[in-house]
Specification:
single chain, alpha+beta, eight-stranded antiparallel beta sheet, three-stranded antiparallel beta sheet
Length: 323
């Protein structure tokens, strides 16, 4: 029987000088070849990458003939905040395929960004599929189906040609043999892969030949970080802080990032904490010392205040470091 390494402490949160708790999980750093440089917990832990796999999904769409302007290709790989630029971009993607938002099979939702959500509610609007943070991906999926003459009624079905193409690229880019799939929050398939496989997927993409499908996706994301997340999102802040960095967040405490030289990292926080994954990624990036990085901005992302009585009384930080 193989014994797997236990989860490691990826972040701690303290209050008034007392460590109140820990976020445990698994993280890895790989080099440009995909070899493990450093790991915490189990680098071969199987996870559902959730939205962190969207760059892979968008790659499969491009390889299947999808052609979009760069800002909309970034939106295809996004978990957007539901700001005006995102929603108008979704409409533009659909219009390019002769479709409307009625074709979307994302669950009805409110915008992810609090300000955008408040404005949406104040205008009297109800939850809608286009406001759901995965609508950019779904619009691109529909456009890919139209390009290929595939059915748009069942594009989320695992046996649909689009989803089979995505599965092929998940296997190719991660190096993992995918033996389990599920249903993601948006209704599309989600694949089980290892933490190392997720990191490897971006290492491969960012070092691929310019013009290749995977390189076009990550280049679009790096050029338009505001389309990948939004104005007040840490995923966008990371890409603004580090030149050439590509980052994608995922539900349940998942993060993946890659530097231009091919070094990449992936994180899975077992309790699904978004704050834990943020400070862990910031700590790893600080240790990697990327060229030209705004270290002040990274330091800000590596430290979250715990509030008490309306003022900071503690912090969320990560103990991760590289030798």
């Amino acid at each position: 029987m193989v014994t797997r390494p236990p989860a490691a402490v990826l972040a701690t949160y303290s209050r008034s000088g007392f460590v109140e708790g820990e976020h445990r999980g698994h993280a890895v750093v790989v080099d440009a070849s995909g070899a493990v440089m450093q790991s915490w917990g189990d680098p071969n832990r199987s996870i559902m990458a959730r939205s962190s796999a969207k760059p892979i999904q968008a790659t499969a769409m491009v390889r299947s003939g999808l052609e979009l302007p760069e800002e909309f290709l970034a939106l295809a790989a996004s978990s957007h905040s539901g700001e005006g630029r995102h929603l108008s971009g979704v409409v533009r993607i659909l219009e390019s395929a002769g479709l409307t938002s009625a074709a979307l099979q994302t669950p009805a939702d409110y915008p992810l960004d609090p300000w955008a959500r408040d404005a949406w509610v104040q205008s009297g609007r109800r939850p809608a599929p286009i406001a759901m943070n995965c609508s950019g991906k779904h619009a691109a999926m529909l456009a890919t189906c139209v390009v290929n003459g595939w059915s748009i009624e069942n594009y989320r079905d695992p046996d649909h040609p689009l989803q089979r193409a995505i599965l092929d690229d998940v296997r190719r880019l991660t190096g993992n043999e995918v033996t389990k799939m599920g249903v993601d929050g948006c209704g599309a398939p989600v694949h089980v892969m290892t933490v190392t496989g997720l990191a490897r997927s971006l290492a491969v993409a960012i070092t691929s030949e310019p013009g290749s499908a995977e390189r076009r996706v990550v280049d679009a994301m790096r050029k338009h970080p505001e389309m990948v997340g939004g104005t007040r999102r840490d995923v966008t802040a990371f890409m603004r802080a580090v030149p050439g960095l590509v980052v994608k967040d995922g539900a349940e405490g998942v993060y993946v990032a890659a530097l231009p030289d091919g070094r990449a990292t992936a994180i899975k926080v077992d309790d699904g904490s978004a704050r834990g994954r943020q400070v862990a990624l910031a700590s790893i990036l600080q240790a990697l010392s990327p060229e030209g990085a705004d270290m002040v901005a990274l330091a800000g992302l590596a430290h979250l205040a715990m509030m008490g009585g309306g003022r900071p009384v503690g912090e969320v930080v990560s103990p991760l470091h590289l030798p």
